Amino acid sequence: MEITARAPGMIILAGEHAVVHGYTAVASSIDLYTVVSLRLHSARGCWIRLFMANQKNQRSVISLGFSISSTPTLCSLETVKSITALVDEQSFPETRIGLASGVCAFLWLYTSILGFKPGTVIVTSELPLGAALGSSAAYCVALSAALPAFSDSMKLDVNKWAFEEEKIIHGRPFGVDNSVSTFGSMTGIDSNMPLRMLITNTKVGRDKKALIAKVSARKSRHPDALCCVLNAIESISKEWSTIIQSHTVDDLSVTANEERLRELMEMNQGLLLSIGVTHASIETVLQTAMKHKLASKLTGAGGGGCWLTFTYLYPRSSSL
């Protein structure tokens, strides 16, 4: 028997980094998915095969085999150490080093749920890694949804366990990523306003864990100042939520709300700049957007990855 689970990627519209510290964020799922297929077998060992979309939209394959006991057991501290050692032995190339933590998260979850039952897991993803489109969250959610199907006794809270996997990958994750990937749509929001967003992948890699730690360190050094910034970001998130849930009755109302959202995006980007998570690659995106009187901001942890550009429902430029 083979079990398949699918989870979507996501984008954060407002509230990046503030959400780590308990503030409000607005996020939405996107129509790109990660699919996990799981099959148990009698052969010894556990295999994970990863099929990833790269920057040229081509597929690459990583196949890892781990020779482990077939006797089911719970995941202990010693098991975690063994998992880390196994992954370290794979000698990931520098360009793929970010996958190591993802493999650790997989093996931790696998052994926690299925013990050391032999099996093969195939992961196929349409989401580019490290691009702020929720690739790790979709991966964790799909794994958490697929694995319990072979467990006789464990009832798994998919969102909760996906968050625990995210901790292994990112250290102190946003938390909103796995929730949106689990529940879909705009989690917790009844959106009544159609939105058009252009997502630009800068193809600049970044370390989400390091960026989150950087903001936390700055908050420790300047608690009052950072709290003011985070409060301002939360105010933007709440206004975003109010606007997109409003019942617009005509094109004029839609246009007025679009202008408010555009201004909020500009303000949000300025605040993210102040906490040190933007990147030089944004200048090209910003300048291009400004030519068309559009607003852009980073999404996710920043430092590269993807940027959002707010585009009007009724474009004002034929060249857009």
UniProtKB/TrEMBL annotation:
Keyword vocabulary terms for this entry: ATP-binding, Cytoplasm, Kinase, Lipid biosynthesis, Lipid metabolism, Magnesium, Nucleotide-binding, Steroid biosynthesis, Steroid metabolism, Sterol biosynthesis, Sterol metabolism, Transferase
Pfam families documented for this protein: GHMP_kinases_C, GHMP_kinases_N
GO annotation, cellular component aspect: cytosol
Domain of life per record: Eukaryota
Keyword Manganese (UniProt): no
An example Gene Ontology molecular-function term: ATP binding
GO biological process, one term: sterol biosynthetic process
Annotated SUPFAM superfamilies: GHMP Kinase, C-terminal domain, Ribosomal protein S5 domain 2-like
Domain GHMP kinase N-terminal: 115-184
Reaction catalysis annotation: (R)-mevalonate + ATP = (R)-5-phosphomevalonate + ADP + H(+)
EC number: 2.7.1.36
Domain GHMP kinase C-terminal: 259-310
Main location (coarse class): cytoplasm
Keyword check for Aminoacyl-tRNA synthetase: no
Subcellular location: Cytoplasm
Pathway: Isoprenoid biosynthesis; isopentenyl diphosphate biosynthesis via mevalonate pathway; isopentenyl diphosphate from (R)-mevalonate: step 1/3
Entry's family note: Belongs to the GHMP kinase family. Mevalonate kinase subfamily.
Protein's UniProt name: Mevalonate kinase
Organism: Gossypium gossypioides (Mexican cotton)
